[in-house]
Amino acid sequence: MTKADLIEEVSRVVEMTRKESEVIVEAIFDSIVRSLRTGDKIEIRGFGSFRTRQRQPRIGRNPKTGARVEVPAKKIPYFKPSKELKDVVNNSTSPMASAPPGPGNAPEPVL
Question: Is the predicted pLDDT of residue 50 greater than 60, yes or no?
Answer without folding.
Answer: yes
